[in-house]
């Protein structure tokens, strides 16, 4: 399974459809609000939202939707990133409600090599999030510093820092058979 891309693997115009989607539960929304101390009743108080807002129900806090989409994009976009450099724009264009399923996709807008280090580059992307009915709910653009292939090779390849399992009395090792513990 791919986890991020090197600079050379990005092509301007490429679209990455992030999979799977995520159905947003009331629990997800409330926990995120409480963890981030966003106690607005639009997100937490069903009675308030039903009678005092244009939506008639709780609206999922926008920063959760953004965070969800950012996380969904990691395997396709920033899994190998050196740094997220900038969130250029972030727009919430339609509400998300409890029970909605969010899907995302990212388009590569541009890319350029670093001017200070020859082992990396910057990728400019736009991510959109949309609900199960296709309604776009969130759009953001960001710039991500990603490594070139030579950067990855110098630091351990595709899975740098991954340890090697150590055989012991519970597991004799790959070469010792089918992985059945020995007495």
From TrEMBL:
Region (Disordered): 155-183
UniProt source species: Terrabacter terrae
CDD domains: FkbR2
Pfam families registered for this protein in UniProt: MC_hydratase
Name by which UniProt lists this protein: MaoC family dehydratase
